[in-house]
Amino acid sequence: MLLLIALLVVLGALAAILSRRHTNGKTEYQFVEITRGNVQNTISSTGTIAPVSKVEVGTQVSGTIDRLYTDFNQVVHKGQLLAVLDTVLLKAAVLDAQANLEKVSAQLEQARADFERNQTVFEKKLISEAEYLPYKVNYAAQVANLKSAQANLVRAERNLKFAVIRSPIDGTVISRNVEAGQTVAASLQAPVLFIIAGNLTKMEIHAAVDESDIGSIRDGQTVQFQVPAYADKTFTGSVRQIRLQPETVQNVVNYTVVIDADNVDNLLLPGMTATLDFIVQDRQDVLLVPNAALNFKPTEAMLQQIRKNREAAAAGMPDSLRGRMRWNEGGGNAAGGSARSQGGGTGRSGGFAQENGAPGMPGGGFTRNGSMPKDMGRLYFLDEKGNLSMAMIQTGASDGKSTEIVRGRRIKEGMKVISGLVESGENKSRVQTTRTPAMGPGMGGRPF
What we know:
The protein is α+β, with helices and mostly antiparallel strands and 448 residues long.
C-alpha cells in the first residue's frame, strides 16, 4: 500500500515537471505591419559620365609648337585660335613650290613654241613624223608637269594653313596634351593636341547592363543615379539608346545603354563613375508588406489550427454556403464553373492537399500543376477573435525589402501579420526564420 502511494507521488511530480516545461516552451509570434507608401522595382548598374559631343583636335603637319592660346577648362568658340606651329619650314616649302611652278611654266612656253613651229613644218611635209613626234610628246609632258607643280603649291599652302590650329566647335577644353616648344610628328596618325567637349550642360552616361536585365530596359525609361562626389544627391536621367553591340567581360555578356542627363549646375564632370538604378516599376501610395511576412513558413501545428478555425466557422453555415466555402478553399469555382477556368485545384471536391508536409490543409493551388502564380502570396495573422488565420494577396512591385499588395481580402493599412516565431524556454530562446520563396505553392482558395 505504501509502495503504491509512493509511486503515485512520483508520477504526480513527473507530470508537474512536464507541465511546467510545456508552459515554458510556448510559441510566440513575431509581427510586422502593413504600411502605405511608395515602392520601386529597379535594376542597378554602373557607368561612366561623358560629354554628349567631344572632338579631338590634332594636326596634319609635323613641327614645333610655337605658341599656345588656350588652356584647360577654357571656353572656346568655333574658329577660335588654339595654337600655332613653327611656320618657317612650311613657308619655305610654299616658296619652293612657287619657284618650281614658275620654272615649269617657262619650260611649258618653250615646249609650246617648239611644238607649234614643228607642227607647221610637219604639215608641209618638210620633216618626217619621227622628227615631229618628240616635240609633240615634250609639249604634253610639260603640260602635265605644270599641273603637278600647281598641285604641289596647293599642298604647301594648305600645310601652311594647317600650322594654325583652330577650334572646330563651340565648347570647353577638357584636355591639353602639348606645351609650347614641344615637337609633334604627324606621320601615320595625327597627334591629339586638345580635346574639346561640346555643351557640358548636357551629359551622357554609358552604362553596362547584364544580358539577364537588358529585357527590362526601354527607350525613355527613367533612371536615377548618384556619383561619389555628391553622395547625398540623386540625379535623374532617361534612356536614349540601347546599343546592340555586346561586350563580353569574364564570360558575362553586357550591353551598353546610353542615358541622357541634365547638368545645368555643372556638378557632373566627364569621367565620373555613376551608380544607376533603372526604374522598372514605380508605385506611389500603395499598401506594402515586408518581404519577411511573405517568406514566412508556418509550422504544421499552425496549418492544422487554421483548418480547424475554418471548419469551425463553416459549421454554423447552411449546407449550401458550407459547400461553396469548401469548394473555394480547394481553388475551384464557387459558381459551379470548371476548375481549370479558375486555375483550380486537383479535384472538384476542393479537397485538401499537403502543404509544408502537413496533410489535410486547404490546397489545390491556382495553376494546373498545383503551384501558386508568381504574383500571389500568403499572409498569416490573428483575426479579431485572436484566432490564427490566413489570407491570399495579389502582389505587385517589390524593392527587395517590401512588396506592393495589389489586392487582398481583409488586408488593410496598419494590420499586423506574422513574420516569424519566437520559442522561449528556460535555457534558450530561438527565433524561427524562413527561407522558402515568397511565391511557392500556396494554400489555394479564392483570395478576393
